[in-house]
């Protein structure tokens, strides 16, 4: 039984999902994978079921009825993991923007170190992003700077989605009180861990934009992150923010 679970949310990732799962299972450390699929019309879930035949007891599939947002997909995955005996629970994209080889580095920073939350950070040692246009790099970098300034978190990559959580962190956070469903979910989870005084560390990684499939980024997601963070911080100052 592996003590580490990698949660991969999917929507129309049929071009990537088999490669990413086989890559993770080829690592020297034993990871399990939970794919949380939002009823992808391209057959992602059906392909996962086929791949499961090669990885019985290691690859799991959680089917959802409709597309409900990244945050709710991860929360469903977190609850699934907490119902089982996993000590380290990861967030990772399906599109290879997160290098599966870095899973071991994130795992070691927590399992062999003192980190409760480990962030695969694009900005801990400069800007480590490949294949993004300069406008998007600048937007992402400024967003992380903005969130760091508003929240007071000592984190360079506040919007990162490549993360390892110790089980105790997810047990402590009230997952039913998470407000955001888009990429601001990533900020909110870090902020709650910060308020609960968990040790958050960053491990530098190189982020490579997807080469297959379509990005899920939108103006609405960016707006949620910018304005939602300010509301979140103000509520925390007046003890109105539920952790």
TrEMBL record:
The residue ranges of the Glycosyltransferase 2-like domain are 6-173
Any idea which GO molecular function terms this record carries? dolichyl-phosphate beta-D-mannosyltransferase activity
- Keyword set includes Metal-binding: no
Name the domain of life: Bacteria
UniProt KW keywords: Glycosyltransferase, Transferase
Q: Name one GO biological process term.
A: glycolipid biosynthetic process
Entry GO CC:
membrane
Q: Which family does it belong to?
A: Belongs to the glycosyltransferase 2 family.
What name goes with this protein? Dolichol-phosphate mannosyltransferase
């Amino acid at each position: 039984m592996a003590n580490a679970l990698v949660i991969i949310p999917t929507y129309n990732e049929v071009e990537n999902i088999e490669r990413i799962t086989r890559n993770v299972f080829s690592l020297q450390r034993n990871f399990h994978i939970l794919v949380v699929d939002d009823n992808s019309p391209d057959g992602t879930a059906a392909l996962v079921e086929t791949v499961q035949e090669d990885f019985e007891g290691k690859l799991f599939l959680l089917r959802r009825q409709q597309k409900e947002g990244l945050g709710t997909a991860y929360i469903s995955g977190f609850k699934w993991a907490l119902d089982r005996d996993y000590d380290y629970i990861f967030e990772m994209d399906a599109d290879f923007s997160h290098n599966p080889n870095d899973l071991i580095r994130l795992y070691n920073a927590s399992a062999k170190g003192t980190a409760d939350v480990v962030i695969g950070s694009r900005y801990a040692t400069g800007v480590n992003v490949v294949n993004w246009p300069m406008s998007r790099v600048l937007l992402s970098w400024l967003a992380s700077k903005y969130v760091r300034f508003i929240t007071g978190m000592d984190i360079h990559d506040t919007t990162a989605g490549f993360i390892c959580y110790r089980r105790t962190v997810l047990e402590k956070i009230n997952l039913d009180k998470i407000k955001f469903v888009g990429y601001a979910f990533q900020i909110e989870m870090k902020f709650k861990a910060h308020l609960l005084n968990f040790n958050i560390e960053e491990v530098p990684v190189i982020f490579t934009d997807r080469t297959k499939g379509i990005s899920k980024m939108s103006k609405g997601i960016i707006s949620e992150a910018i304005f939602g963070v300010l509301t979140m911080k103000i509520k925390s100052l007046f003890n109105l923010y539920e952790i």
